[in-house]
């Protein structure tokens, strides 16, 4: 829902502005941790009350634009009452939090949900999240993360939609629509904040907070489009990134925050710093001190400063000295007040602060059903040798591994407010699906990162006595998320040893992988008969795993990130530019590959199996050429030769064979998840125009170039035979 300014609001905002002191204006630009409300009570509880009185005093003085990461409608109402009834001008505060993929009901991590290739599903889970978050006294979420992550050593890929821009745009827009709903002023509309602007996923070596060296073309064609998609979907806030871009920190980058965001894109909303990113300009060596950092950030276009207190401390003096024109300060404050007006706060400051709504659990069941469906739709079946899956319910099953009955690693790296009492772990889900629980033998085998005394022996004994092993292994959730970059994206050694020992018994193994990134699967994990990628699935983990394991749901998800052979291949992504030495049968040596591995993925982007048997017919184009202003139909027939209905993610890839800049070997340009009954054939068609072929050309302009193109309609980024077509030059 693109934002339409309301003239009545404008008049009220101008009247407020005219009465505000400089300190009150600067106050609207401050975002501070909410120490008044319980911050995820079981997380640093001692922090909850510290400074609560001081924060309320700042609110009363009109020095707070927003508070974040507290919850509770009743106490939120108290905060708002102080702002509205005790401050001089009664301007309400925005109440925000990091609500990324669920509030009390927790959905799969965004990377896992992206595997569904169902943006409409993400819209529904974001909507349910917004209903719960606004009921808990929140107006604003610092989500969705829309960073494109091409290096799996980086831990924050878990929060986004993976390595592909086209998929990333679809999920960015869907999550914004879901959070905000149809009406920004509704009590259950949650203001979205696409983050982290920009190119945070491109940090060098996958090391969080590291420098970013990037070409203008890659910045514009890979990392920026999901933000534009989010803004086009109606987002009115954006959070800047910690990193620099080619030497200029994003949070003080006028080319980014001014020329592009305001100039080129006409973004009307507010720009908020990621946490203390303005303070960090000094550590970057981009500002000499706090005052200089304040001037550089504000001058570049950073409207709101989070947590550092720099704006409150230095902006008034900068305005006084004339280094910051009053008109510029007014412009930033106007944008903050406009957002507050846009979500209805100036009309109803107590919107979303109804304690009765917070205790209303009437939607909890529907949300948990949605969580279960979202979770099972996120599970990717990488391998299923001999159709080992789905399992019979009378099979003797050994559930082995540290994730078998773990309850502390279900929600992923970025969940602050989940209702853990309602979580269902793997053992619980399996037992609920089995009439006779006796067939399930559960053994940890090892801890997350260490051996257990007698653990392997117990696991081996259980494996010997079973028809099949479900091996629940993976990354502890603290291995992904912020500041969690890894040099080797593998399982902890103790878990690998467990896998080797269990596999050596000869009992067939199904790996239930728990992961916040693509992993380099090794040894017995890689060689298992079947592998299910289960990410971090949230509240309904156990039921979703059981639904897939026992065949009540046929897996339909696809990889949103490439699984490499080895960590050393990072950064690895399917849509990499061509080289002059591609690995082809003709090239005997001196080709683009590693000594140890080919320049391929173990499991490529877009890969995923189902319990069906889907065959693809040839990709065909309706004509050999696409006219410059025309459209071209590309299609293929898919057929389910299996015995069960199945959902297939049909993918369209394009390749520009000759460009003024070297072009990616393939790029996703369309996808459609289709339901195929056993024996059913379906023609799947995509309509192309030259907009689908556009990129940032060598001269810096954005557009297509006439010439030859390949098109694939395929089940992944590494399969299929292309059809050729020509884009004709302008008539
Ligand atoms: C963190 C994260 C950002 C989050 C913010 C507020 O450092 O980078 O994603 O929204 O601070 O918690």
How many β-strand stretches?
29
Question: What is the terminal separation in angstroms?
Answer: 36 Å
- So, CATH architecture of the largest domain? Alpha-Beta Barrel
Which class best fits the helix and strand makeup? alpha/beta
The CATH superfamily of the largest domain is known as Glycoside hydrolase, family 3, N-terminal domain
Which molecules other than protein and nucleic acid are bound? alpha-D-glucopyranose
List keywords for this structure.
731 residues; alpha/beta; TIM Barrel; Rossmann fold; Immunoglobulin-like; 3 domains; six-stranded mixed sheet; five-stranded parallel sheet; 22 helices; 29% helix; globular; binds alpha-D-glucopyranose
Care to describe what's here?
The chain is built from 22 helices and 29 strands. The strands form eight sheets. A six-stranded mixed sheet has the order 11-16-15-14-12-13, sandwiched between helices. It has a five-stranded parallel sheet with strand order 4-3-2-1-10, covered by helices on one side. The chain has a five-stranded mixed sheet with strand order 21-29-28-23-24. The longest helix is centred in the N-terminal third of the chain and has 17 residues, at 119-135. It has three domains: 7-357, Alpha-Beta Barrel (TIM Barrel), CATH 3.20.20.300; 380-556, Glycoside hydrolase family 3 C-terminal domain (Rossmann fold); 611-727, Immunoglobulin-like. The chain has 731 residues and is of the alpha/beta class. Alpha-D-glucopyranose (GLC) binds at residues 98, 142, 195, 274-275, 482.
């Amino acid at each position: 829902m693109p934002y339409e300014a309301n003239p009545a609001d404008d008049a009220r905002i101008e009247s407020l502005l005219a009465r505000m002191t400089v300190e009150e204006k600067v106050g609207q630009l401050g975002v501070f941790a909410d120490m008044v409300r319980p911050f995820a009570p079981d997380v640093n509880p001692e922090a909850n009350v510290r400074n609560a009185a001081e924060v309320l005093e700042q609110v009363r003085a009109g020095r707070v634009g927003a508070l974040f990461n507290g919850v509770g409608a009743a106490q939120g109402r108290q905060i708002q009452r102080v702002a509205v009834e005790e401050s001089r001008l009664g301007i309400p505060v925005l109440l925000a939090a990091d609500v990324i993929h669920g509030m009390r009901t927790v959905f799969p991590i965004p990377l896992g949900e992206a595997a569904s290739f169902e943006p409409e599903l993400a819209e529904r889970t974001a909507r349910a999240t917004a209903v719960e978050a606004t009921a808990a006294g929140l107006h604003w979420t610092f989500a969705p993360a829309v960073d494109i992550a091409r290096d799996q050593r980086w831990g924050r890929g878990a929060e986004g939609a993976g390595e592909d821009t086209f998929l990333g745009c679809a999920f960015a827009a869907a999550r914004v629509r879901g959070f905000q709903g149809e009406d920004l002023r509704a009590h259950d509309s949650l203001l979205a904040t696409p983050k982290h602007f920009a190119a945070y996923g491109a940090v060098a070596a996958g090391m969080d907070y590291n420098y970013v060296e990037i070409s203008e073309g890659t910045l514009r064609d890979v990392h920026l489009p999901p933000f534009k998609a989010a803004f086009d979907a109606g987002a009115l806030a954006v959070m800047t990134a910690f990193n620099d871009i080619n030497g200029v920190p994003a949070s003080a980058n006028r080319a980014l925050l001014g020329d592009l965001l305001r100039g080129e894109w006409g973004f009307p909303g507010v720009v908020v710093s990621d946490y203390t990113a303005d303070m960090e300009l000094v550590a970057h060596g981009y500002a000499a001190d706090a005052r200089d950092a304040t001037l550089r950030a504000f001058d570049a276009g950073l409207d709101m400063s989070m947590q550092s207190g720099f704006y409150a401390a230095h902006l008034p003096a900068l305005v006084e000295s004339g280094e910051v024109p009053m008109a510029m300060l007014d412009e930033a404050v106007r944008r903050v007040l406009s957002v507050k007006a846009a979500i209805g706060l100036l009309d109803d400051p107590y919107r979303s602060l109804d304690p009765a709504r917070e205790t209303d659990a009437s939607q909890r069941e529907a949300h948990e059903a949605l969580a279960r469906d979202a979770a099972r739709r996120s599970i990717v079946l990488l391998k299923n040798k001999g159709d080992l899956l789905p399992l019979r319910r009378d099979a003797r099953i050994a559930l082995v591994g540290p994730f078998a009955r773990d309850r502390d690693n279900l929600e992923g790296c970025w969940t602050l407010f989940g209702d853990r009492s309602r979580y269902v772990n793997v053992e619980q889900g399996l037992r609920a699906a089995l009439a006779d629980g006796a067939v399930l033998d559960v053994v940890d085998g090892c801890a997350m990162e260490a051996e257990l005394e007698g653990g392997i022996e117990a696991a081996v004994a259980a494996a010997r006595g079973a028809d099949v092993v479900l091996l629940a292994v993976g990354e502890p959730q603290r291995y992904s998320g912020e500041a969690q970059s890894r040099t080797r994206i593998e399982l902890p050694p103790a878990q690998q040893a467990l896998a080797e020992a269990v596999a050596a018994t000869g009992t067939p193994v199904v790996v239930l992988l728990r992961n916040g990134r693509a992993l380099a699967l090794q040894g017995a994990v890689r060689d298992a008969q079947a592998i299910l990628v289960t990410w971090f699935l949230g509240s309904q983990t156990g039921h979703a795993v059981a639904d897939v394991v026992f065949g009540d749901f046929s897996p339909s998800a696809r990889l949103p990130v490439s699984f490499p052979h080895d960590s050393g291949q990072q950064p690895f992504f399917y849509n990499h530019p061509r080289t002059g030495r591609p690995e082809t049968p003709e090239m005997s040596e001196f080709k683009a590959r590693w000594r140890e591995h080919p320049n391929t993925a173990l499991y490529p982007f877009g890969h995923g199996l189902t319990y069906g048997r889907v065959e693809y017919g040839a990709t065909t184009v309706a004509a050999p050429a696409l006219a410059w202003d025309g459209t071209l139909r590309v299609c293929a027939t898919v057929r389910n030769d299996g015995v069960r209905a199945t959902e297939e993610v049909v993918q369209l890839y394009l390749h520009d064979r000759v460009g003024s800049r070297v072009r990616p070997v393939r790029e996703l340009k369309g996808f459609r998840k289709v339901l195929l009954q056993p024996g059913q054939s379906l023609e799947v068609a995509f309509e192309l125009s030259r907009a689908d072929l556009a990129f940032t050309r060598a001269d810096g302009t954005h557009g297509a170039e006439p010439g030859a193109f390949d098109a694939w309609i395929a089940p992944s980024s590494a399969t299929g035979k292309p059809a050729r077509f020509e884009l004709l030059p302008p008539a």
